[in-house]
Amino acid sequence: MIALTRFRLAAYVRSHRAFQPLIGLLVLLAILYGAPLPPGAELGAMADSAAILIPVFAWAARGLLDNEPDEQRMIAITAVGRREAVVGLGAAWIFNAGLAAISFAVLTLRLSARPEVAAVLAGIGLHLIAILVGTTLGALTSRPVLSSPAASTLALLLGYLAVLLLSLTGLPWLTVPLMLWMREAHQGELLAHFPALAAWSLLWPLIGLAAYGRLRRTRP
Amino acid sequence: MLSNVDLAFARGDVTEIVGRNGAGKSTLLRLLAGLLRPVDGTISERPDVVGYAPERFPVDQPFTVADYLRHMARIRRTDPGAVQTWAERLGMDHLLGHRLADLSKGSAHKVGLAQALLGGPGLLILDEPFAGLDAATRAELPLIIREVAERGGLVVVSDHQGDLRGFPDLRRIEVGGTTAREVAPEVAGAEPDDPADSGPPEAVTILEVVVTLSRARELADRLRGEGHTVRISEAEVAE
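ok -> structure tokens follow
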């Protein structure tokens, strides 16, 4: 499984398609951190970063999974069996962790004050959840599930917008509560509620991954 | 869509899948390889190591031939040194440094065959393996298939061009009319759109072919592989 993960990461990076989400990330970073972050805004900035980067993570995950030609995916299935789908998700998660690390490094450089350790840990936790959410969204819009590139792109963007809008409504438990992340982080309440919020936030991507696994059973 | 398919394979079997274009040969191969799951019914006791060579090898990958095959060897947990062995055997050792995207159809097809053979498959699935191959590899491939079968491997080949005709103990499965069934060797292979394979046995004739000495044995092997009787005369210089 490690060999297949390395193969897929190498194929994605060498194909130069990996630059697309990377450029998207750099544009977002330039917008988010054009000015230094004032003291006290550390956790709020980390929550904003995690929520805003989800479409970039989804784009990268979909790109990595779709980078492999269909026939090569068939060859991979005959080599490692149905674990091929897990390997794809793992490779996408690792690539996205790299993007998140770049983002986190830039964010840290733009801080005006030293943040609390608890705030940094919560920020890292939110980014890890965001990577999972983005990877799941990317996987659910990848070619084996949605064969049309246009429909796939639309589904990815609308999927993220739906998550944002639903988390704005009075029924935020219907989705990943992104707006709640940001609101509570800016109001200084996130650390107190973090475990429950993290568990709630993990529920939907895990359901999404289960759906992806189910769909891939009949869509090799 | 295939239905009412009941097939059994034994270790060492070499089976040819025949049928019209679009009859479902590739679908049957993908079912056997474990790429597709039957909606109803089961496929049981599939060997652990499956080698699969698709009809069209995907060249849109950013690797050289050597890099790609070494990756495949590691994925299949086999010695990357086997890459050189198979490259030489399939007559593509001079291509190892070439990018996949630069390969001709036949060369790309060889890469597909090589990756399928890495790891010593217990089940080898080849979808139109002879398409686009040069004469030397066309002659070599039946020998490779025989070796896989002799060590207990199961080989299933979709062979629209009939290059395996004359292969000893070859089983044939005909796909068509939404089902697949085993047929006698003399009946299968008879493509309805191929008049040479239909009707009563024809009279034989002798066809003289003038060929350069260096290519004579290769051509003879190929023709023998197609079931013809071949005699090579004394070498002489053609005027």
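Confidence is low (pLDDT under 50) at residues 187-199 of chain B.
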